[in-house]
């Protein structure tokens, strides 16, 4: 296992020297994202992630979510396609929906799973029927990380085409360590998960760490406490997925997505104060920030 290198601090100059792929002339050239998420407890998370993916430049986004919310979400976000899925008795996506997800993923460039998941056992049951059968770039967010806790090698068949976006608590559960271990050495724990599961890991809040399976590492500083609000992580996951859809490699999408997410928080904090802005206000800041970085 390779230990993480001393992290590089992400700056505008670093990103300008690592430009994103050209977006292409139409929606097909800009990539297709399939977003698997949602539950009765958290139906709106897919909307946050979907808008962020589109704001980051993805050409097409489809939300695979509970059928009972699909119509309302389609009206709220007419740019997003819908793949309605059956719910289980607890109000979460039933694993019997896996065939429909796998079929739709066959025509996607990226599968983002996790926004709106609320139970790790249900997440593992669903993803265990989906992920071994897909051959697209995968991003796992939040409680979808439980799949890698149960199956540390569950994404090895993707040969590194995978990103994990988690907060420190989720990273600890994925790594099988205590929260204090992550607090003491977030870069080291992220590096171990990255190497073990062959994924690029994005972890953090006001300071984010990005680590690749080979031990390359970056730190994104800033963002502010407002990014600790509910739904903020869904936005970051959507940014990463949208950049992957555009053709960015996993490490690039993770670094760019983490940095843009932090700058969105700072823009809103400057306008309304460090606390009190909403996660749904973050995606609207994305195009201007990305234009400035270009």
TrEMBL record:
**Binding residue positions for (6S)-NADPHX:** 45, 116, 234
Residues reported to bind AMP: 233
YjeF C-terminal domain residues: 10-293
Which cofactors does the annotated protein need, by name? Mg(2+)
What keywords does the record list, in alphabetical order?
ATP-binding, Lyase, NAD, NADP, Nucleotide-binding
E.C. designation(s): 4.2.1.136
Q: Which residues form the signal peptide?
A: none
* Enzyme class label: lyase
- Enumerate the catalysed reactions: (6S)-NADHX + ADP = AMP + phosphate + NADH + H(+); (6S)-NADPHX + ADP = AMP + phosphate + NADPH + H(+)
Q: What does this protein do?
A: Catalyzes the dehydration of the S-form of NAD(P)HX at the expense of ADP, which is converted to AMP. Together with NAD(P)HX epimerase, which catalyzes the epimerization of the S- and R-forms, the enzyme allows the repair of both epimers of NAD(P)HX, a damaged form of NAD(P)H that is a result of enzymatic or heat-dependent hydration.
- Kindly give the HAMAP family that the UniProt entry links to this protein: NADHX_dehydratase
* Assembly description: Homotetramer.
The record's comment on protein family reads: Belongs to the NnrD/CARKD family.
State what protein this is by name.
Answer: ADP-dependent (S)-NAD(P)H-hydrate dehydratase
Native organism is Nocardioides oceani
Gene transcribed to yield this protein: nnrD
């Amino acid at each position: 296992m390779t230990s993480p290198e001393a992290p590089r601090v992400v700056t505008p100059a670093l990103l300008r020297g690592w430009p994103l792929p050209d977006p292409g002339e139409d929606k097909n050239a800009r990539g297709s994202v399939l977003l698997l998420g949602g539950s009765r407890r958290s139906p709106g998370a897919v909307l946050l992630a979907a808008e962020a993916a589109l704001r980051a430049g993805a050409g097409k986004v489809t939300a695979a979510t509970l059928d009972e919310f699909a119509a309302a979400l389609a009206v709220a976000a007419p740019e997003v396609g819908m793949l309605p899925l059956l719910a289980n008795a607890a109000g979460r996506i039933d694993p019997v929906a896996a065939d429909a997800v796998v079929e739709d993923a066959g025509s996607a460039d990226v599968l983002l799973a996790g926004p709106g998941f609320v139970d790790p056992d249900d997440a593992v049951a669903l993803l265990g029927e989906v992920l071994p059968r897909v051959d697209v770039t995968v991003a796992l967010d939040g409680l979808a990380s439980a799949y890698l806790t149960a199956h540390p090698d569950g994404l090895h068949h993707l040969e590194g085409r995978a990103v994990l976006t988690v907060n420190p608590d989720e990273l600890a559960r994925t790594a099988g360590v205590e929260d204090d271990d992550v607090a003491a050495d977030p870069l080291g724990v992220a590096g171990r998960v990255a190497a073990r599961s062959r994924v690029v890991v994005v972890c953090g809040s006001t300071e984010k760490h990005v680590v690749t399976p080979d031990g390359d590492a970056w730190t994104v500083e800033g963002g502010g406490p407002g990014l600790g609000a509910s739904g903020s992580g869904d936005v970051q996951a959507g940014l990463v997925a949208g950049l992957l859809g555009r053709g960015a490699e996993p490490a690039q999408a993770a670094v760019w997505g983490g940095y843009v997410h932090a700058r969105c928080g700072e823009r809103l904090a400057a306008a309304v104060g460090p606390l009190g802005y909403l996660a749904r206000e973050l995606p609207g800041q994305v195009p201007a920030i990305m234009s400035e970085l270009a």
